[in-house]
Amino acid sequence: MDGGIQVLLVEDNPAEVRLTREAFAESKVPHTLFVVTDGEQASEYLFRRGRFLEVGLPDLILLDLNLPKKNGCEVLREIKASPDLAMIPVIVVTNSQSPDDVEQVYRLFANCYLVKPPDIDDFFEMVKRIVEFWWQTAMLPNGRNGLPPKKGTL
């Protein structure tokens, strides 16, 4: 979708993928949501390998920690070590409330650590707030967001 935000969701739980899709749709933010279901697929997507040769880079990454094949911290480490990927905001969205996980994720330069609420409605609202914040409030490095163009300087 031209002008919209490109989001990579790295999530292995089909129910959470569905809820995330619904929250994005309800937010009315122009977007394209790409989904991969394990850490190896995330790496292949981001480094454009295998079946992902033609994909573009996302503007935002939503990353679960507990993934098959390669965990979220390993994926995060690869992202932040790559000059081509390091500036992409990575939001870790996980069930873990472990202080060790929180510390490790921030040491790996994640932009945010969010714990998935157990209530479906709360999860849905959290995803909508993520989308709206990164589209309407934050400035993305590539300039693709919903902020009005600057009219001048102060």
Give a written overview of the molecule.
Helix 1 packs across helix 5 and helix 2 (39-46) packs parallel to helix 3. The mean pLDDT is 86. The protein has one domain (5-137): Rossmann fold. It is globular, with a radius of gyration of 15 Å. It is built from 5 helices and 5 strands, in the order βαβαβαβαβα. The longest helix is centred in the last third of the chain and has 18 residues, at 120-137. A 5-stranded parallel β-sheet has the order 2-1-3-4-5, with helices on both faces. Helix 3 (72-81) links the parallel strand 3 (60-63) and strand 4 (90-94). It is an alpha/beta fold and 154 residues long.
Helices and strands in order:
Elements: E1 5-10, H1 14-27, E2 31-36, H2 39-46, E3 60-63, H3 72-81, E4 90-94, H4 99-107, E5 112-115, H5 120-137
Parallel strand pairs: 1-2, 1-3, 3-4, 4-5
Helix pairs in contact: 1-5, 2-3
CATH architectural type: 3-Layer(aba) Sandwich
The value of Rg in angstroms is 15 Å
Low-confidence stretches: none
CATH superfamily name? Response regulator
Q: Would you tell me which CATH topology applies?
A: Rossmann fold
Provide the number of structural domains. Answer: 1
Query: How much strand?
Result: 15-25%
Number of helices: 5
The rough form would be described as: globular
How are strands sequenced across the largest beta sheet?
2-1-3-4-5
- Main sheet makeup: 5 strands, parallel
- Give the helix level as a range of percent: 25-40%
The termini sit apart by: 33 Å
Based on DSSP secondary structure assignment, what is the total number of beta strands? Answer: 5
Structural class: alpha/beta
Overall pLDDT metric: 86
CATH level-1 class: Alpha Beta
SSE run: EHEHEHEHEH
